[in-house]
Amino acid sequence: MQAHARLGFILLLTPLLLWLSLLIIIPHIDMALLSLRERVGVAQYETSPANYLTFFGEPLYLRTFMRTAVMSILATAITLLIAFPVSFYIAKIARGRVQSALFLLCLVPFWVSELVRTFGWMILLRETGVISSLLQYLGIASGPVEMLYNDAAMMVGLVYTSMLFMVVPLVTTLQSLDDAVIEAGYDLGGSGPSVLREIIIPHATPGIVAGSIVVFMLSLGNYLTPTMLGGKDSLWFTQLIYSQFIVRFNWELGAAFGFMLLILSSVIVWAMLRLTGQTLEKTMG
Amino acid sequence: MIPSMPQPRAYRLIYTGYIVAFFVYLALPLTVVAVFAFNDSQFPSLPWQGFTWNWFFGDTRPQIGVFHERPILRAIGTSAFVGIAVSALSLAVGTTNAFLFNRYQFRGRGLLYVLMLLPLVIPGIVLGISILVFSSRVANIAWDAAQWDVTALRPGLMLVILGQFSFITTIATLVISARLQKFDRTLEEAALNLGADRLTAIRTITIPYLMPAMIGAFVVAFLMSFENFNTTLMLVGSDAPLTIAMFDRLKEGSTPLLNAVSLLLMLGSSLLALVMIAFQRK
């Protein structure tokens, strides 16, 4: 029986180890090694931090990096602000069938590809688009209005694309909050805002953290939305990675960029977990 | 705030209005995509030129419908193939992972569990390039050592499948683990007492219990693979899956053909989602 259990253990462990080592760990180590390589001649390479120096020395790269980080945090905050009242409504105010119907309605848009969603916003916002035509029809605008290709359009798209990943964890945590606790808060003399601040938000923290991490990651790593909805000035860091790898074929610099993106996302996710006293196992698992 | 608490009428009205506005925002882009699939015009925009089915069934230029557009049909086929391969692989590894973490206590379990979750917090594009870098390195080594050209390790479907598998497995593992945790182990022990060996007990008791979660994991994995963009973009070769093919067309300018494809996608994924919900209910 012992030997039997041991064999079973090894059989179950093997796929996990193969998957993690061959597709996650070793490729990332390899990418780190590549990013520390400098081409000094034809097929001649040296280990050096040159790619990172290029990254920190070129204002365009550094600015794009910072901009992507700040905009992703902003997108996360906006998504949270929009999603919280909606999640509260679904979890605490809607009842029975309405509740499950609203929850399902929130999920529906996300069963279709991000490309379709982005395409929808393009049809709505562009110069010949639906909103522009509507404004002209109503006499608010005298000519076609271009609403596409700027930061606001990109933000609308980013928030839209990641909404689900905020609503689902929020609804789940809010549903586990007993109504009696909220009532007790009022009975003890609390007002709306103080109940929200001292009872509801602390209870929802695990959901807020889980949602924020996923939304932040999705925004940071997004390529499609900034490319299709953003303008010439709204360069996104993933576009730099793409152009180094596919257009310029400078894999060394591209790998360094990839690593910077990875570090940025890890630091911010770690900080978010630390600040709220959560762990990755609890929020994601 | 909650229904048992009296609130001013104005507050309730504003709140309800906000919820309505939110759902309009949610539905708006998808609605316009669907509606303009039927516009009898070269562009998916106003003015409305009349209703037509041509973007689905048309077979003459300039209105060639989805069902006569070879490249799009081929891309759908490619996506379906990749999706099935990724789902099957993720389901297999997800199931073994779930059993491993559920049934065994061993040194390094905590660390492995965190590592298992890691793909969720790695940006998709970084996953893509790291696999691209590593597979190219292996392919180059094989070529230098034995003049052996391993085409599977060059950008193409094989790498797309591996790239998507690398993070979808985590999701499959979580979905299956969640159900396995609720399983009553005494049922398995009863089977053992009745003379079944361990594998028979798992095959006849545990696996049927897990089936809804396994089907759920398969469908979720398929949908995630079908709509994946970031990882695929970095690993794709000459056979483009649907999202990449549509992206290339969208960059050149769009015709209502793309709306028609999108509408079909919406219908397809809603159908799959309904199938999954039906299985979960059982």
UniProtKB/TrEMBL annotation, chain A:
Keyword Cell membrane attributed: yes
Q: Which GO terms describe its biological process?
A: transmembrane transport
Q: How does it sit in the membrane?
A: Multi-pass membrane protein
Where is coiled-coil annotated? none
Family matches, as Pfam families: BPD_transp_1
Q: Where in the cell is it found?
A: Cell membrane
Domain (ABC transmembrane type-1): residue spans on this chain: 65-272
Q: Which Gene3D superfamilies match?
A: MetI-like
**A cellular-component GO term for this protein:** plasma membrane
Instruction: Name the UniProt key words of this record, in alphabetical order.
Output: Cell membrane, Membrane, Transmembrane, Transmembrane helix, Transport
What protein family does this chain belong to? Belongs to the binding-protein-dependent transport system permease family. CysTW subfamily.
This protein is called Spermidine/putrescine transport system permease protein
Tell me which species this is from.
Roseovarius azorensis
From TrEMBL, chain B:
Where in or outside the cell?
Cell membrane
Presence of keyword Magnesium: no
What PROSITE patterns has UniProt attached to this entry?
Answer: ABC_TM1
Q: Which residues form the ABC transmembrane type-1 domain?
A: 76-276
For this UniProt entry, what's an example GO CC term? Answer: plasma membrane
Q: Name one GO biological process term.
A: transmembrane transport
SUPFAM superfamilies according to UniProt: MetI-like
Q: How does it sit in the membrane?
A: Multi-pass membrane protein
Which InterPro entries does this entry report, sorted A to Z? Bact_Polyamine_Transport, MetI-like, MetI-like_sf
Major location category of this protein: membrane
Keyword Cell membrane appears in the UniProt entry: yes
Q: Which stretches are transmembrane?
A: 12-38, 80-100, 112-136, 156-176, 207-226, 257-279
The alphabetized UniProt keywords are: Cell membrane, Membrane, Transmembrane, Transmembrane helix, Transport
Family (UniProt):
Belongs to the binding-protein-dependent transport system permease family. CysTW subfamily.
Instruction: From the Swiss-Prot or TrEMBL record, give the protein name.
Output: Spermidine/putrescine transport system permease protein
Q: Which organism is it from?
A: Roseovarius azorensis
